[in-house]
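Internal ticket - ligand job 314, flavin-adenine dinucleotide:
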Amino acid sequence: MPSSKTIIIGSGPAGCTAAIYAARANLHPILITGMNEGGQLLQTPDIQNWPGEPSISGADLMNKLMEHAKSLGAEFINDEITGVDFSKKPFTLTGDMDSYEADTVIIATGASPKYLGLPSEEKFKGQGVSACATCDGFFYRDQPVAVVGGGNTAITEALYLADICSHVYLVHRRDEFRAEKMLIDRLEDKVSAGKITKVCNAVIDEVTGDDLKGVSGIRVKYKDGRIEDISITGLFVAIGHTPNTGIFTSQLENNQGTITVGVNPDFKTSTSVSGVFAAGDCADSRYRQAITSAGSGCQAALDVEKFLQLKESH
Ligand code: FAD
Ligand code: NAP
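stdout (structure tokens):
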């Protein structure tokens, strides 16, 4: 059974940064990548807020981070953890491929996209309904599409799709966007250029289409009761994320799935179980940025190092 002083679960910015610091501290970390190797950033074609990189694709940035961690000796294992036992030490982790033992664990499992919850959305998932424009936008080249949401993800995806698709409808339930100003400025430029139409104060009531061809439209309902049918072939859902913490929540304190950290005031990334730490979007419902995730991954590895030193000196 593979074992280590420290096992990191997740290969996004938090997990990779934790691996870099843990490897440099000679903790010989094992990092379990999960199915989404590289994490959420793989969905974005252009990152403009990673310090030192004015413009870099998510795939390039995450490949650099993973290679960096590996070059320092972190061992990457492609597996998905399906169960954990934090009730006794060493901790045990069960994966699809193997089981693992660790003295300390850093959870960096990030977050996954939310969906609207409509039966018609469920029906057309993979047949016109997607939560990743970078992954699927290519299939809608020169076709009309819609994006739903008003945050950074929705605007980023709408901007990306506006360069590929014939037209983008941005459906938002309010008329104010919570996305950052720079993205909104770029959105307004695309609206002025006739590439994007804002459909505000509206919710999607139904995704329409047929079994053979997939999505052919959306029916939107405005706050004032008006109903409108919009012809599209692709719907991109960008309404936020849920932390990937289902396998931990029965054993760790959490707030609606977001793992509670700082339980031991000596360690900012400590959870309610001594020796288990958490970093990144799985433990942060507020900032959820690549750089804040990486920063907390660094803190988690430093916390683990100190935790193990204290344990060994007793
Ligand atoms: P994630 O990146 O979500 O990585 C989680 C990792 O955990 C994955 O590797 C996954 O495989 C693994 N995992 C999950 N469950 C398991 C399991 N059971 N077993 C093993 N492994 C598991 N932020 C910015 O700062 N700038 C941007 O420009 C930006 N653009 C974005 C664009 C989009 C479309 C999206 C969706 C997000 C964007 N973000 C951006 C936010 C940023 O991607 C996240 O804040 C960041 O990726 C979170 O990092 P993380 O390491 O916590 O988790
Ligand atoms: P978010 O900020 O939580 O925004 C979610 C959006 O979806 C909101 O506009 C919300 O509307 C809307 N929404 C939520 N539930 C809905 C529903 N059931 N029906 C219709 N609309 C719904 O999520 P996000 O945009 O995915 O961003 C997540 C995090 O990643 C943020 O911290 C963000 O800063 C970060 N991120 C950063 C970048 C970047 O820096 N460039 C890019 C992408 C993501 P309301 O506004 O009305 O609540």
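Auto-summary: The longest helix spans residues 290-313. Residues 9-15, 32-37, 39-41, 43-44, 47, 49, 80-81, 108-111, 153, 156, 244, 247, 280-281, 288-291, 293 surround flavin-adenine dinucleotide (ligand 1) (CB under 6 Å).
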